[in-house]
Amino acid sequence: MIDLEESYPSILNKVNWNFDEVSNSALHSIHPYPAKFIPNIPRALISSLPIPAGSIILDPFCGSGVTLTEAQDAGIESLGVDLNPIACLLSKVKTNPLPTGFLTTAYDIAKDIKSFKGDVYIPAIPNLDHWFKKDVQRMLTLIIDSIGKLENQNLADALRFCVSSIIVKVSNQESDTRYAAINKAFSGNDVLAFFLQKVVRLNEVKRATSNNAESIVLNKDSLTLDQNDLTKPIGLVITSPPYPNAYEYWLYHKYRMWWLGFDPINVKNKEIGARAHYFKKNHQTEVDFILQMNKLFDFFSKNCIKDGFVAFIIGRSKIHGRIIENEKIIKEAGEKFGFVLTDSIERTINPFRKSFNLSHARIKQEYLVVMQKN
Ligand SMILES: C[S@@+](CC[C@H](N)C(=O)[O-])C[C@H]1O[C@@H](n2cnc3c(N)ncnc32)[C@H](O)[C@@H]1O
């Protein structure tokens, strides 16, 4: 183990946290996800911090699973938790080997669909005709129903990942970040072709990656985590939490959830930070965020190994015109539950990270807050 007396604050200060070269991961580019980590961040933390033996890495807001794949690359067991079922689908597929028969099953499904002439029962999804052409609705239903009949759940999830990745593209929605309806000239056959292209791409990329260490993914509200969710104590938390009044992850994935049989409204209600909770009539303020972070740190403090670390990447947000210094809220929550601040580093958010639009708050910096269990 590294001697902390000697090594702090030098270890993390040696890293250029603005990363002149952002690593482009083929695996993380297949399916969009807002506010994804650039892999450099969890990678630098994992390689710099001494993770006590016999412990795991936890990301309680794992999103698209970047912390988990970086933990796997380093050969360290990990646990990812996210409320959003699409996040969990992505994280699971990325951290599990592709089941054998993945490609052939997709081709068999496509062949059966092409020769299918019967009736199709389109699921009851709000506003479906506004967002999806009839022909597209029919094809998505056929693909999703065929996947639903598979016995092997890992195989079904890998195929669902591919459908999920094309849902916005084949809808009338202008783009992942623009919610206007526009006319796109895609037919049902295009939908099937895009699905198969994604299957081939995922197969190519996954064959070139190895899953070196176990990673467990839980679809759960992180505020309800308990000791039984852990197989080993926590050695390192790496996470970027949702900030108050900053984003709506549920909204971004709303139609993906409807199509794959999940309820986005349920996710919305429990989503930390979702802007809808901060509209005046709903009355949430930063005090709610403080209570949420306290709850989380209470769990960390009870389940983190001695000398273990917690690393948060967090930016500021704005509530009714006031800038909220979320990094301070994290530091205070950590200190309240027995963690000591070891590093606090400011980094510049890459303006080309288009997936996370913070323009409403003009936020350009984010903070890396690292604390250690005393
Ligand atoms: C900033 S994103 C994390 C992105 C992630 N670092 C990545 O690389 O993809 C925050 C995540 O918190 C999740 N989230 C929001 N409220 C939650 C809750 N109560 N419990 C668990 N996850 C939650 C959102 O679904 C979203 O995926």
Can you give a write-up of this model?
The strands form three sheets. The protein has a seven-stranded mixed β-sheet, with helices on both faces. The chain starts with a helix and ends with a strand. Strand 8 and strand 9 form a beta hairpin. The relative contact order is 0.16. It has two domains: 4-96 and 211-373, Vaccinia Virus protein VP39 (Rossmann fold, 3-Layer(aba) Sandwich); 102-207, no CATH class. The longest helix is centred in the middle third of the chain and has 20 residues, at 188-207. Helix 7 runs antiparallel to helix 11 (188-207). It is an alpha/beta fold and 374 residues long. It has helices at residues 4-7, 10-13, 26-29, 40-48, 66-73, 85-95, 102-115, 128-131, 134-148, 153-170, 188-207, 249-252, 254-259, 264-270, 286-303, 326-336; strands spanning 56-59, 78-82, 173-175, 178-181, 215-219, 234-239, 304-315, 317-319, 322-324, 339-348, 365-373. The mean pLDDT is 91. It binds S-adenosylmethionine. Residues 33, 35-37, 61, 63-64, 66, 81-84, 87, 221-223, 240, 242, 249, 270-272 line the site of S-adenosylmethionine (SAM).
CATH class of the largest domain: Alpha Beta
**Biggest sheet, in brief?**
7 strands, mixed
Structural class: alpha/beta
Number of domains: 2
CATH superfamily of the largest domain: Vaccinia Virus protein VP39
Apparent shape: globular
Bound ions, cofactors and other small molecules, one mention each: S-adenosylmethionine
The CATH topology annotation of the largest domain reads as: Rossmann fold
